[in-house]
Fold each of these.
Amino acid sequence: MNLQNIISQIEKTDPEVYDRLNTRRKVMKDFANMSGKIALSALPLAIGSMFKKAYGKNTDAITDVLNFALTLEYIESEFYKKGVGTANLIPAGPQLTALTVIRDHEVSHVAFLTAAIMSLSAEPVAFAAEDFDFTAQGTFPTVFSNYDVFLAVAQTFEDTGVRAYKGQAANLISNNDILTAALRIHSVEARHAAHVREMRMARQAADTSNPLYVGTIKPWITLKQSNIGSAAVQASYDGEEITTQATVNIVNIGGQTISANAASESFDEPLTQAQVTTIVTPFFA
Amino acid sequence: MPTIKNSKEQGAVINEGITQNVSRRKFLGYVGATSAILATAASCKKNDNNNNNDDGVNLGSGDVGVLNYAYALEQLEAAFYVMVTSSFYAGATDQEKSYLTDIRDHEVAHREFFKAAITAAAPTQIIPALEVNFSSINFSDKASVLGTAKAFEDLGVSAYNGAGKLITNPDYLVLAGKIVSVEARHAALIRDLLAAGSFADLTVDATADSANGLDAVRTPSEVLSIASAYLKTKINASNLPTS
């Protein structure tokens, strides 16, 4: 078969085919070396491998990270859409307003990341409400009927999202625009996390006997406390307790009085993609 | 060492020379000297190091420059909160005092961390302690204090968001990432103290993108231009990376 002829035929429908093909000499050379040794029946696969990167999914590291982020944004977006849309769940007034603001941001993040991935000629993941089970396989059965449970899951999602983006930043270092966009989403998620924590603090003050509220809740994370009365969320907080950064001990650093609490609060910690995946998997239907 | 480019600068240097405690005999000895010597004499201040020149403290270049930039901002924030917590504004609630004390501790920790990290990585390039200018702030007034706190925190978030792409060492990027989310938590809290529910209002900062849910972002020169109102020390960011 005449590869050049095939490519010329494709060129008629896709003038940019030459840009898409990996025309580095070695690839072409490999293909030429291969064609003498493989059976005719295998040829389409061999040609396909050369075109895979061109027309198949662009699976490079950057778009993988973006699709991972997009997945998390879908989780949050559908969670808040459902929560805000559930009658009698969220008290009307400032609380509903705040959670609606958060919902709108997550919806925007989904749209933004989807567009970003498409602009890189890759295929964005897509999810719908029915793809998720926010009870986490029955761990939070009242997530949409008990507001305090809803807020606990919301806090966990936000704190986890912050740590997830943080864990991917280094993977985006080769693309300035994408890295900057990811950082700008990351800081918005941190604002969400702080506010949801404040909301939970207020709920705790109004009902000190509610076991969902544990310890002193702050806008920041103290040691590895979730401040949530459920061991189910601990994985999102493990690792936050560290008080050494790049071999520098932050406790009483530079002769200043800095407690372990403050030292741990001063820095948020990344989670790896594997850790985040473990945390969010139960939320898929 | 800096050289003087024109006679206007020379005049400025001579004026500086007069206000320094240079003995008259020494000074007169310098007046007839070359521009280079004059510049050297006039620009040498106490605690001078290789970073100083007539254009202010030089942050330096590359990753170290970006770390110095972050260190400068954390110095500013730490100094502010130390002042705030040394004498709280009138009517500060226990909760507000607790929050502001926490934030002070965080900023001091950040400042000291950068000081230690840059000292370890590039001991001859670390910038000195900066002199702040808080004359525009009324520390006994809640609105003035929280308004400034909000400005500093939002500025810090935008600074880190803009600096990320300038860093080449992934370890430094992660460290900056660990800090910026804490600054964003601060920013959210301070905004809520000022106006409940404004924690993530992306419409107030022209550099934020509300439609896409993206936070503010600024270049070092944009940030330092805003920060300069609160700094007596001039900062020279001209050698920082730009992309």
Amino acid sequence: MSAPTPHQARDLAASRSHGPHTSMFLRMLVRAAVLRRGRAISALFAMGVAAAVATAMLNLYVDVQAKLRREFRNYGANIILVGKNGDSLPADALAQVDSVVAGHGIAAPFEMIVARTAEGQPIVVAGTDFNRVRQLDKWWSVNQWPTNVPTSRAQDAREMENPALVGVRAMAVVSPKGLPFDLSFHGRRLTVVPTGTVQTGAAEDSRIYLSLADFVAWTGVQPSTIEVAASGSPEDVVGMMKRLGQAIPAAQVRPVRQIMEGEARVLGKTRATLLAAVALIILTASLCVLSTLMGWVFDRRRDFAIMKALGASTRLLNGFFAAEAAALGATGAILGFLAGVGIAAWIGRVNFHATVVPRLSVLPVVLAGSIAVTLLSAILPISLLGRIEPSVILRGE
Amino acid sequence: MFVRLVYESFRRQKRRKLLAGTAIALGVTVTTAMIAVATDIGDKINRELRTIGANLVVTPQDDSLDVEIGGVNLKPPSDGTYLSEADLPKIKGIFWHNNITGFAPILPVTVSVEHSGKREDVTLLGTYFSKRLSYGTDQFTTGVRSTDPWWRIEGAWPDDNSQDVLIGERLAQRLGEKAGETLTVAGRTLHVSGILSAGGAEDGQIVAPLSLAQQILGKPGAVRRVFVSALTKPEDAFARRDPKSMSGDVYDRWYCSPYPQSIALQLTEAIPHSRAEQIRQVAQNEGAVLTRIEGLIFLITLAALLASALAVSAAMATAIFERRAEVGLMKALGAGRLAVASVFFAEAALLALMGGIMGFAVGSWLAHQIGHSIFNSNISIPPVLLPVILAIAVIVTFAGSAAAIRKAVNLDPVFALRGEL
């Protein structure tokens, strides 16, 4: 290779002087971190932990409402549909309700009449769908659930086996030994086989529950009540009530205020407490970042002094250190975000036995917050250093 | 000399000490506030859960079967046994009387009302609204206004000693009654003080003071059942054991835990010829909700403790790292590593104690604020928390400074003297 000609050398110098200064900027940025690996890593660690904690807390805060609402659905129905003026609901009412509810809740039909036992004792008999009730009213303490008997099987009067769920108090009256017993309603007799008992501490203990098919076949009375446990926020529930009212005009749709108001109170207070806790924790995490980063910048004062002595303008210096702090902040934030999502998922599994959906909406908040905190923690020391003569710093004072 | 070093360090480097001390104080503030909230949140949420309704019911032991549909009682009034109203104040005498937030007796009576020329059978429910009772030297108020807070009245609540009644809104609509009018029931003219919206069976009933219902029924002092609202501990396997099968110590432990079952047992001891059980819809589910919320707050408190510990460690590490030159100087003058380290540890301990006391005070105040603004009640700070918090502060400060101190004392003093630090 021959030596460069003067022409080529001039072009080379020209191109270099007009070249972007960013390559030097980036190089200094990266070298600073690489040379001070130990301090950089500890600063990154502090940043990452703070971001992880902030992410986990924010994730939980956004998610906890949904989780707790699910717990409240175990209280049972929060919407009741009854036929207007005490009439029965139309035959397709349950199908309509199912299509409106569509996976956002559980619905179960009910109807009650007063029958008489063989001794003439009046007793309340209810007809319902056992599978649905089992999901809707989870607090029922049942030792053996009857399976729904399909209508076609119940046609044969001779072999009519009507399985029933009997309340514990009713059991003592109608069938203390668990044997089949007779009921009569308006002259029609029915032989009932007690499959299991139900205990709730409320009105159910004094009733006998038959499957809806058996009940309707015996009494001819269609259900006049449908109970619905609708999931979601109060706005969702109100919306569902409206849609149910529109779908079934013959029905009166009522909220179960007892449960809805109690739920709103408890969730509101829990959320407020959580917000206070989350705010405190994020504050503390920011403090951790602040002190670490202030130390990091202060540690770089010799570099700062050298650059200033070499002629760097205050603007360039501020920009350089701000960029350093922001880069550290952003990297730590992203690492911390991933870790935080993991922590939130772990808390969700451990405490709620359900997955916590990672909320990506939290990322921009955490990122912005981290960069803001790091910039803040860099500004203070830089402005302090800027006032000192570089020679003072270089001399070691 | 040692004392002078520490004292001078505080006197001359006030700004640096202030920063480190503030970090410790803030960390301790957050820790104290979170621990205070976490220990009390269970009780607070438990009280909020009581707004969903009574979780225990007391009924006569030899009661006959209920025949009730949609709030209309079809059982003949002569049927069934009753509890005695005079026994009710004894509820406030049970072992767990502090956990009873309220109770309401119920006496349903079937009456006939006339409207549009027809007679209709309607249930008149006798109960306490806000009745003042006394047990021994204790005065307390109880009734449906405590146990059923979701009831809404258009008009005014009846007085417990009056002949005023409430009419459920559905019944009022059918009868065409409004608040302030009168209603003729069982030969009596009653004043309707308000229209009730309860969202349940009561909307089709007349709700009256217990004494009025007893007069109409002709059975003074009779009560059909009592709904009790109690703060309970979530049920577990131990709670479900049969008390009759338990020996002395185990039985005492069961009796002295506020399970729904043990409170129910104590209610039957207070009210003769009764049986008590939990209303499963309320009692079972509140245990689950409470457990979830307590678990969540516990985990968050751990996160807060971790964040505080890290913040304190970071602040201390930075503060000590800044003083490497000082360390180098001390070593160059002949101080041993242990001597230098002990000066720093002593400073750290003093900072921790001062910051800890400051942080405890602010943290307690913060916990009070949280309690008042969210729950309208005090969050109690157990005094034993102070030494515990101070000990934690000292330990965390030590742990946080340890790594930084170790690195600082291992540096070659030459660098400090040459000014390269």
Amino acid sequence: MKIKLTVNGKVHEVQIDPGEMLLDVLRRLGYKSVRRSCDSASCGNCTVLVGGKPILSCITFAASVNNCSIETVEGLSNIKELHPIQEAILEAGGSQCGYCISGLTLTIKSFLSENPDPTEEEIKKALVGNLCRCTGYESQIKAVKLASKKLRGEKK
Amino acid sequence: MSEKRKFNHINKNEIKVDGPSILKGKPVYTDDFDFPNALHVVLVRSTYPHAKIKKINTEKAIKVPGVVEVLTHEDVPQKIFTRAGQGYPEPSPYDSFILSKKVRYVGDPVAIVAAETINAARTAANKVEVEYEKLEPVLDFKKATVEGAPVIHDEEGTKDIHDPKKNIASHYEMEVGNTDEVMNSCDYVVEKTYHINTQLHAMMEPHVSISYYDSNGRLVVITSTQVPFHARRILSMLFDIPVRNIRVIKPRIGGGFGGKQAVHVEPYVTAVTLKTGRPARMVLERPEVSMATNIRHEMEFRATVGASKDGTIKALSLDGLSNTGAYGEHALTVFMVAGSKTLPLYNKVEAVRFRGDVVYTNLPPAGAYRGYGAPQGLFALDCVIDELAVELGVDPLELKQKNAIKEGETSPIFKIMGEGTEGVEQVVRSCKLDECIEKGRDLINWDEKIKDKEKTGKKVRGIGCALAMQGSGIAKVDMGAASLKVNEDGSVNLHLGATDLGTGSDTIMAQIVAETLDIPVNKVIVYSSDTDMTPFDVGAYASSTTYVSGNAVMKAAENLKNKIKEKAACYLNTNPENIGIKNQQAINKENGEKISFSDLFTKLFYTFEQEQLMASSSFVGNESPPPYLATFAEVEVDLETGKVDIIKIISFADCGTPINPIQAKGQLEGATMQGLGWALYEVVKYDRRGRMLTNDFFTYKIPSRRDYKKMECYLVDSYEPTGPFGAKSIAEIGIDTPIPAIANAIYNATGIRLRETPFSSEKLLMEILKKEI
């Protein structure tokens, strides 16, 4: 079957198998930042934004997001510059192996757009569905606080 | 004595060199690479824990549209080997096959299926019919050596199995002095048994390998591994391909923690490429990662400590049993480290003994895992000393500190116990454990809280401490090498074998070169872990990268610096001794004349004394300087439910100079969280047939962001004279202390000693009810 996906502003008309998950379709289209880790909706690594809201692409049928607008991290930065959230993660040491980072970045983006000045508790709660095995989470909390400052223009 | 050293690029929080590409979502991990013609490889796996394979019928599987090959043990070399990624000859039993005629755990590979699509491969795998002759399994490691227990490794040709008929993979014993005699002379003797459960690595990226023939007919394997050079050697041996015709490349990988310090996937894709001539790709599914790669060695220790009434620990003994599962990779070495990286901490004893067996069971094979035996040994050692403190009526922190090793001291165990072999004598040149203890004691408010336990209704708080050491590489064994070459713009290419698994090693190596040559970090272009392009390195394990590979990089940079000075001297008409290097320039110290690196290197390419300036070096450590750690845990126990909440966990570590403090701290934080999960949340369960049930993230609970309240990790100022710019290591040690610190805190809160991990609420509640608190 054929579906239409707008990914980071680009329109894709793509032939899919009805049973295909969004994760595999996106990777087929070249969006390799979307990655499979647990394949059972329990780690958040595969998170993408659909209509600005985080969803788990490993258990979302591609057909169910036909005609939707999808964001992946490839759309956040351009050739030269990183998005402030990406900068903040790097500056705070929030990325070690990096495998959880694509999903985490998008969840952070969606969260900060709704809560631009969150407390530590609110950060932990919002990101609880994004597991990370490397960092122990502390540096990522700092990253979110730093990102929120950058987005509010308080820090470069 | 703490010294503040001034560095330009060391002890600086440089952004990771691979950071931007990862954040941008670039295709940098193994499965991100497209190979349109690649076959998808899937394994058929045993559903029984112990059985002989009588017949494999592949007819139906072959008929599935899109299936190209189905390989059984008859189609692959029957070479016996160890999967362990260790130096050759490996100190692990040779007891494994690519595909065996017998299965030894639920998940053991039985057949290899290769197909045009992943769905065809999976469909076909389900259609492979295997006839088994079921055998009695051993599912409890305490029953492995019992009379009449089924023999797990009865095949021909095994090597270095201590006693296969009794399922003993390895055995080790050592003694200094006469332990029994000294114990008998002690005023206080405490003997307790501790059991530490297994653990899953749960790294975020599943294991994946891709193999193919390049245009010159050489086998290339791109793989998510911690040990590319060992992988190359093992593939060469298994398939009789000369090493020169194999190239192994490690791109970015998504974590390992020891779970990728073995060849788990590479032989299967290689078998398919060799048979078909086509590229082959295999990505493990999460349940396979959990149950069919490696897990943590479950261990039990009877720990005995003897002391005089003034609190001097005079004798220590650890008697252990380790569960290595179905195959023996890392069996002996992990067990030895349970003693070699714990007992030297209390070096003032008159006698010390460490011994035990590592046994086979029909459970998933255990292997390398961060800490590598030290956390298991330390649970027993630290807690038995904590219990001794109660007998003596003294503060456990004071007791441990008083007896702990100090800078300038040594322990006979350094010489006796290496990893799989004898060790190396060494004196502790840097040890800031006292400072770690003082700072931690202060921050958690130890002196006050150890006396007054906070109780609010049915919730009670308590604090506990634990001290640890580890190592920095395996002395006289682990080797790393690096090479450098210059470019016209004053930059250098750094090629090194050392393996970055997210640890940031590429970045710190760039910092080491930058510091030595006084050039910006962004002028060091790092390329690592490619057996064709980079010099040898044992790989990422034993906390060796910063110390061993870092020293190689530093020496290579120093060699290059000397060559730069020579050429600059030639150009500036003086002697090399008069040349100073500063800020990307070579300066004649006598008259101030100078030339920039970019100018000099350009001239050296085209017009002046033409030469490609290059330098290289290898390094193998003569010692393995331990990092040190003091961890303090504050817990809150709900007496009505037995639930343990972590209020605070604080760690202070001495890792020598942190090359990149944020990255070093990140290692400590990550390891602490992993230890916390192991203590409280991570439980592996099997069904009655030995099938791992907890093989995904729903059932196996690694800590989430809300599973702790406060975690604070700090590094104290220290300098290791034999390390690159004073660095030691940090990657593993953090996971050693959370279990004992939390156990000790639970005791402080409730008076209950939990000597079995995990410290579940059910377990604790039962004890609370028994004690009627």
